[in-house]
Amino acid sequence: MHNYTIFDPDQKYIILPIFVSDKNGEEHLLKAILDTGAPTTEFSDEALEFLGFLDRTKHDVELKRGLQTQKYGRITISHMDICSHHIDNLEVFVSHFEKSWGIDALIGLDFFRKFRTTIDYKKGAVITEIFQSEAP
Amino acid sequence: MAQKMTWQEMKEAFPDEWLLVTDYESDKYGNVTIGVVERHSQDKSEVFRLPALKKSCAFVYTGESTFPGGWRAHAQLHDI
Q1: Residue B20: Cβ within 10 Å count
Q2: Topology of domain A2-57+77-134, per CATH?
Q3: Euclidean distance between CA atoms B78 and B80, whole angstroms
Q4: What is the tens place of the pLDDT at every residue in B20-76?
Q5: Which of A10, A14, A94, B73 has the fewest Cβ atoms within 10 Å of its own Cβ atom?
Q6: Whole-angstrom Cα distance, residue B70 to residue A128?
Q7: Exposed / middle / buried, residue A40 (Cβ in 10 Å: 0-12, 13-18, 19+)
Q8: Do A101 and B71 touch (CB under 8 A)?
Q9: How far apart are CA A96 and CA A59, in angstroms?
Q10: By the CB < 8 Å criterion, does B29 face chain A?
Q11: Buried b (16+ CB within 10 A) or exposed e, B30-64
């Protein structure tokens, strides 16, 4: 079964909504960039702290020149929805994002390992399908 | 009690700020179209500060993203 997730092809990046459940089960909407250059999905430390997955955000993290993000830990998010797929217990990097990036997550190649993914710019859609070996 | 605002109203009232929006609705792209702005600040950490609200929230930025990702940006940073 294919899931179609519409994105705005006029935007500079493919920005997708993701829904993440916090420690109390409340679901929150965050914005993420689909990033084929990121090996692993990353979340902003401030968002993770709000969601209850991180005890304390490090405030002395500085972005190094030439790096897009500054990863400094790993954490497991118990439940999230990306492209209408439920993903449980995904380990992600804790990362520092600049506030002007306007996003709170990078969806990396670990997502592509779970789903056959087609990016159709003409339709403005990300088409995802669970691999047969992982289908329930 | 705060009133509902459209996305356009939010952008005009809070330019280049992070917003925490509740009671929101979104369009087919997942963009917030209407909702109640519970917190707003140019300081992102103010919007994400604890305690978390015990209701579903959306976090949005009203400015233009300056995300520099990709190899092209990497090359530009290093004058390649």
Answers
A1: 23
A2: Cathepsin D, subunit A; domain 1 (2.40.70)
A3: 5
A4: 999 999 988 888 999 999 999 999 999 999 988 889 999 999 998 887 765 555 455
A5: A10
A6: 22
A7: middle
A8: no
A9: 9
A10: yes
A11: bbbebbebebbbeebeebbeeebeeebbbbbbbbe
Q: Is A15 in a helix, a strand, or coil?
A: strand
Q: Which residue from A17, A26, A103 is facing B65, i.e. has the nearest CB?
A: A103
Question: Which residues, including other chains, have CB under 8 Å from residue A136's CB and lie 6 or more apart?
Answer: none
Domain ranges of chain A: 2-57+77-134
B56·A106 Cβ contact <8 A: no
- Report the pLDDT value the prediction gives residue B69, as an integer from 0 to 100: 63
Buried b (16+ CB within 10 A) or exposed e, A101-120: bbbbbbbbebbeeebebeee
Q: Cα separations (Å) of A101 from A15, A62, B16, B22?
A: 11, 15, 11, 22
Chain B contact for A37, CB < 8 A?
yes
Bridge partners (DSSP) of residue A136 are none
- The answer to whether residues A4 and A119 touch, using CB atoms and an 8 Å cutoff, is no
ipTM over 0.85: no
Single pTM value for the model: 0.85
User: Which residues of chain A have a pLDDT value below 50?
Assistant: none
